[in-house]
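Escalated from tier 1: BIS(adenosine)-5'-pentaphosphate holo job.
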Amino acid sequence: MATITHDLVLLGPPGAGKGTQARWVVEALGIPQISTGDMLRAARQAGTPLGRQADVYMSAGRLVPDEVVVGLVSERLREADCARGFLLDGFPRTIPQAEALDAELARHGRKLRTVVALEVDDETLVRRLSGRRTCAACNRIWHLEFDPPPAVDACTCGGTLQQRDDDKEATIRNRLRVYHEQTAPLLAYYERQGVLRRVDGSGTADEVRRRVAEAVGGR
Ligand code: AP5
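Tier 2 regenerated the structure:
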């Protein structure tokens, strides 16, 4: 990559490939991946009060209330490993979340440098999400058709593969509706700030990777 940009957001609809692309970006730049979806799922699994509250929204494919997610991310951004930068995956998802993020960064004299928006059509997203399987042990993301695991229920690390409970078709459709209504307005928000890089998220994961590398390194 020509230039290393440290404070990054990966934006895109459910199934656009945010988690898949985030994995190599954070390795390449040596920054932490902050995935609100992963943080909420961990809280849900641990049965914390936050996890129980989030469960109601996540199971229905709705957004967890802004104040809950903003609190979670603001706290995480103050940790030492974010000093050199971070990659936000799945946050912000609403205009109030984006404004809260700007305010939090401004308090520390920082500003978002690049927002990469992955663009993929809805029917491709449904196909990607329906076939997704995630390893319960190492979190590796697989796809039964596009990136097949060694066995239907086993990862290369030996862990068991699981299907997310919000990856059922009716819930996927609801998540897409929520994306178009509440998250898509962020594209104009970041366009106005001059930090938006739109990336075609169709094609193979490697093809998308090359486009993301260009978008991240091109500033
Ligand atoms: P979250 O976990 O953030 O889910 P999401 O945004 O819906 O995104 P996904 O993780 O489903 O998709 P992805 O873009 O990461 O795709 P992936 O790389 O896995 O959020 C879940 C829930 O938590 C929300 O619904 C909400 O309730 C709550 N939440 C989270 N953040 C919140 C916030 N900020 N505010 C409020 N609520 C919040 O890829 C998908 C599949 O496709 C995989 O199988 C992969 O192998 C395959 N694939 C990827 N790229 C390609 C490619 N190029 N070609 C073929 N297959 C591909």
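The pocket of BIS(adenosine)-5'-pentaphosphate is lined by residues 12, 14-20, 36-37, 40, 57-58, 61-64, 69, 90-91, 93, 97, 128-129, 131-132, 141-143, 146-147, 166, 175, 203-205, 208 (CB under 6 Å).
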